[in-house]
Amino acid sequence: MKNRKVSWILAVCTGVLLLAGCGGEKQKIFEQAEKDFAQGSYEYALSGYGASAANEWKTARSYRGAGLCNLRLGKYEDAISCFTSALNCEKVGKALSKDILSYHATAEWNLELYEDAMADCQTLAEDYTMDADTYYLTGKVALSMDSYAEASSNFEQAYGEDSTYDMAIRIYEAYLERDMEADGTRYLEAALQTEPKKADDYCDRGRVYYYMADYESAQKELIEASNQGSPEALLLLGMVYLAQNDVSNARSMYQEYVSGEGASAQGYNGLALCDIAEGKYEDALANINNGLPSATTEEMQDLLFNEIVAYEKQLDFAAALQKAKEYLEMFPDDEAAAKEVKFLQTRVQTNTQ
Question: 242 near 233, Cβ under 8 Å?
């Protein structure tokens, strides 16, 4: 009966066959899954974690890993199943249990199961020590439930625990998604009161100014970050220049990034955006193809969406529709892509009439 249960859960989480082997082989499978996940190869990692769970090797961590892969891939129901299995494992330490429960709530939030997510957040508050991330998660869930006072209280706690640029940006983005930009901007302004000390600080400040549409200040901070050796600053500078319709300087930043970092999905994606802005759609498709081999799942999503845009701009609506359908199979929760499919279907129908 136990093997049947494991097989069923594995099918839900991963859809792969059971693997077996000696302890050394099982350990290698788990370690490879960890490496694949760190590299953003979530499909490969999902297979490895599923095999580890079936082999009952680091079972809770294996189910957790499978859940994280499904979370990254937008397969939220499967993620919830995996996280539930992880929580039901024997001898799950309190720190690991807290971590898994947080991700369980995150998956529920993505499925708009806000009451379930809030129930998990309440369990976190009652049974564990709250930290910046759990306060932030609770605030985000409360915001989705229109509990603005509760959201504000939790966001203040989160920023109080972790007064960094990154946390300020996360809170800002949460408010921005709810069209409450003003509520989030005050966290960006608070973060800017921190004195920069290293390249990453200047880079973060540049990102904050970018969000605030203060492109002149963003440029100043990012140039300083670049001068101190931050490759990420080049990508952000490209975004800043594109926001100002300065395609020439944006292209220079992305080219410099690609030259320094080698085969870079983000760099090629930036070059594709420059091509699209200048109407060079064939060049955009070439840069997208150049970026795909080295792309993580998130980077691949950006590249493939821009591929749809490039075909649409070429007025090749049939190709754009085909690409959009393939994209939605990979990223089914992208509402913008779903709307794009409907739009492209009307275009294709019009052209065939």
Answer: no
**CA atoms of 96 and 83, how far apart (whole Å):** 11
At residue 40, the pLDDT reads: 83
If residue 299 lies in a helix (H) or strand (E), which one and from where to where?
Answer: helix 297-313
Structure tokens at 182: 């003003």
What does the pLDDT look like over 103-140, one tens digit per residue? Answer: 999 999 999 999 999 999 999 999 999 999 999 999 99
Say how far residue 60 (Cα) sits from the centre of its chain.
23
Cα distance between residue 261 and residue 185, in whole Å: 33
Q: 36-57 pLDDT, tens per residue?
A: 999 888 999 999 999 999 999 9
Which parts of the chain have pLDDT scores under 50? 1-9, 11-12, 14-20
DSSP string, 144-198: HTT-HHHHHHHHHHHHHH--SHHHHHHHHHHHHHTT-HHHHHHHHHHHTTSPP-S
What is the full DSSP assignment across 217-235?
Answer: HHHHHHHHHHHTT-HHHHH
Tell me the C-alpha distance between 121 and 102, whole Å.
7
Six-digit token string for 202: 């200047």
Tokens of 117: 């997510």
pLDDT of 57-89, one tens digit each? 999 999 999 999 999 888 999 999 999 999 999
∠ CA 13-4-17, nearest 5°, is 50
Cα distance between the two ends of the chain: 58
Beta carbons within 10 angstroms of residue 82's beta carbon = 34
Neighbouring residues of 187: CB distance < 8 A, sequence distance ≥ 6: 155, 159, 167, 168, 171, 172
Q: Which burial class, exposed, middle or buried, applies to 300 when counting CB atoms under 10 A from its CB (0-12, 13-18, 19+)?
A: buried
| 250 SS3 class | helix
Q: Exposed, middle or buried: residue 121 (CB in 10 Å: 0-12, 13-18, 19+)?
A: buried
